[in-house]
TrEMBL record:
Residues 16-231 form the Metallo-beta-lactamase domain. It comes from the Bacteria. SUPFAM superfamilies: Metallo-hydrolase/oxidoreductase. Gene3D superfamilies: Ribonuclease Z/Hydroxyacylglutathione hydrolase-like, Winged helix-like DNA-binding domain superfamily/Winged helix DNA-binding domain. It comes from Pyrinomonas methylaliphatogenes. Keywords: Hydrolase. This is Zn-dependent hydrolase, glyoxylase. One of its GO terms (molecular function) is hydrolase activity.
Amino acid sequence: MRIHPITLPTPFEIGPVNVYLILDDPVTLIDTGPKTPEALEALREGLRRAGVRLLDIERIVLTHTHEDHCGLARRLLDEAPDAEVHVHLWEAGHLASRLAYEEYRALLLRAGVPTDAVEAMRGLYDGMRRYTDPLEPGQCRELLDEQELEFASGSLRVIHTPGHTPGSCSFLREADRTVIAGDCVLKRITPNPILAPDPIDRSRRFRSLEEYLVSLARLRSFAPTLVYGGHGEPINDYEELFNRYLRQLRERQKELLRLIPKRGATAWELSFALFPDVGEAQRFLALSETIAHLDLASAEGKLAVEMSDGREIYVRSAVV
């Protein structure tokens, strides 16, 4: 089983995205890149260099369903009609609609986001839909945790690694402890935990950072020798990166707790204090990270949460 990385351009601030061609039977593509002419052409060229055509792809596996990772899935099915798309159940709904608007609106209002800012965010993220085409439920097969994706010469084990998104998955080749991790693990940056409804109870918020820390520890338990991420270079020293992530996360939480005024504050207010220089287009990501840290601090007893006019107000605990 040969893993062949292909780097594709994206129109997003994160920069190029990595997708992975598995040269074995069945020919498998892990992630697709965004739906842009530039990404499609780069994918064709990357496949050609590996001696593969789009028509030869028999299986498409998605680490998660952000546009830079899944956007071309529908287009690939048009050219490889016998291919199957595999994705975790908690991501499948995302393929049908970029945002379940009313669910996200409720989460944003609870976080203290003004109604005009909620509408602005909706406009920005509605624009993201042009980078992906929806898939019908019948076009996807479900990825299950601990499932084996079989190949002629081996297998990849599915590792559910929620955090960046609820249904994010990584893939482990146990023979040499190689992991394809999507956006769970990136060499140069700490992945952003994205605000999302809880997949079990969609009236609640998914506790992204708590789940992410568990996912990082789970990957660590496999002692990976090589980790392929969704962006940037491969990682050869997971232990060093794991400890760096933990250190950065604790430093960010400490900074956030220091910024909470005595009267308390909403997540929206604190996102401006924590990320004062972020532009409008990135404000949702800044808010997502702020909420993730607040949820973790609250779970650890460092914060109290009070409700006021339907908004969550965070107040520092006396023990902090």
